[in-house]
Amino acid sequence: MTTDLRDLYQELIVDHSKRPRNFRRLEGANHRAVGYNPLCGDRVTLYLKLDGDVIKDIAFEGSGCAISTASASILTETLRGKTRAQAEALFHGFRELVTGNTDGPAEVDLGKLVAFSGVSEFPARVKCATLSWHTLVSALNDDRKEVSTE
Amino acid sequence: MSATEKTTRIGQAAIEPFDVRRVREDFPILSQTVHGKPLVYLDNAATSQKPKIVIDALQHFYSADNSNIHRGVHLLSERATRAYEEARVKVQRFIHARESKEIIFVRGTTEAINLVAQCYGGTHVSPGDEILITAMEHHSNIVPWQILCEQKGAVLRVAPINDDGELLLDEFERLLGRRTKVVAIAHISNALGSINPIKQIVEMAHSRNVPVLVDGAQAVPHAVVDVQDLGCDFYAFSGHKLYGPTGIGVLYGKGPRLEAMPPYQGGGDMISSVTFEKTTYNVLPHKFEAGTPNVAGTIGLGLAIDYVNGIGLEAAAAYEDELLSNATAQVSQIPGVRLIGTAKEKAAVLSFVVDGVHPHDVGTILDLEGIAVRTGHHCAQPLMDRFDVPATTRASFAFYNTKQEIDALVAGIHRVKEVFA
Over pLDDT 90: what percentage of chain B? Predict the structure, then answer.
């Protein structure tokens, strides 16, 4: 079976990996978390400005592979203005998408995140795609601890 | 790489070219496709593939000879014991050890180094003493010594390398001090391919009465190793990188060194008599082989050595050098690609980074082209820090690789650059 390169490295992912959006330290952030994948050394710092339950602003810094960088970039675009509950629902849907483990039809509109559908064919890369999302959960809970993929 | 013995063939017109096509037929795994492309296996420094003779040996053992060793009076046990001990002699001859009792079977290089750290280091290292390693070591030749240092209040010293990935011998010698109790060093670096001048290092250390452990995991598949000529006190390697099974490795130690060391683990086979008051330990090599060993794996390793001897390690190494030169010349010409590890003396490893592309993305794209490489820190994180990269992509060669496979690698790297252009 031939797997096409572009199933994984879709234009949108390559674009966001090369020109990540909201890639900066966020002044006035009231939630922050650091994510780390010790296997490849990928590291992401996520900054949130939460107003009640609403993500008013969001940005990230870090270094990693194309999949993890693009995932963090698209995460920030997707979540600005969303509520905590919406963010959690999106993570649930995103995780089902990239692992290929679904327990029914998607209940959320994943929007641009569907670009990551090819990841499910690459089990070794699932952690790259979900690193920023695990970091998001930590930031929302404001653990102020480093989260690890391991 | 240069071998310790040169074979001269006087009166022979030409040395036969290395017949890689025939060699490949011995490795069943190589003739498959992955992602619809012919498999190009360039991850030999992680583990090598196994010739049919080794695979068959494992099956034969379990089908015909399986039994425990050194204890049964029955025929199967005698056959298994004989095959196991024959493998020890094959290893002895392969690395030119003086006696077969200097060959201890362990799980792999990692266990061999841990054994020496605990059994030699544990009895010879005191607070304030020093262990000297180098900046290019694999985690397996760092962490056992860190554990020892923590137990004993000793200090780990690290000899630096230059930007080409070569050990700075002057610095190394300067760090060999009054308190140095052990030198532990890779023969060939797994992440860079650099070959260390072991003989010279052993001379430096021995002139100060410091014993030397050599991590030979990457060396035995690519060079003729003569432990007596090198003069090292301990030499460790793994079977699975030498075309043998996983879970079997070798610790060579000079007889008197091993004799003076306490056992590593207690259990069956390592004793000569046991009472609840006092246990007498068995003689070498059994003192260090507690419990039922990996009998099938050991026999498989013996067959792997037979296979390598049949190919001829010198001819294989010369052929691998050609592959490395070819790959180095081609890959270094690709714009935006930087080689990590450019030592003058190198073997079988090509580590590189592609500007603006993370090694994991390189690895995935190459995989989709059918090319298996290693990406990551290669269990040498301090070395990655030294070169200020999070990870590299590493292609590592064996004698069954071909020039066409190098071309496929080069085409694959161009594909990586297209995707991220």
Answer: 90
Averaged pLDDT for residues A116-120? 94
Coil/strand/helix, residue B295 = helix
Domains contained in chain A, CATH given: 5-148 (3.90.1010.10)
Is residue A148 pLDDT above 50, yes or no?
A: yes
CA distance B227 to A29: 61
The count of CB pairs under 8 A between chains A and B is 53
- CB-based contact, B124 to chain A, within 8 Å: no
Nearest CA in chain A to B417: A14
Q: Which residues of B are catalytic?
A: 379
Sequence-distant (≥ 6) Cβ neighbours of residue B312 within 8 angstroms:
none
Domains of chain B: 20-50+312-419 (3.90.1150.10), 55-309 (3.40.640.10)
- pLDDT at B421 exceeding the cut of 80: yes
Residue B196: closest CA among B182, B206, B208, B186:
B186
Q: Please write the tens of the pLDDT for every residue from A29-71.
A: 999 999 998 877 789 999 999 999 999 999 999 999 999 999 9
Between CA A43 and CA A63 the distance in angstroms is: 6
Distances, alpha carbon B148 to alpha carbons B130, B182, B206, B275, B352, in Å: 10, 11, 22, 31, 33
B300 neighbors B248 (Cβ within 8 angstroms): yes
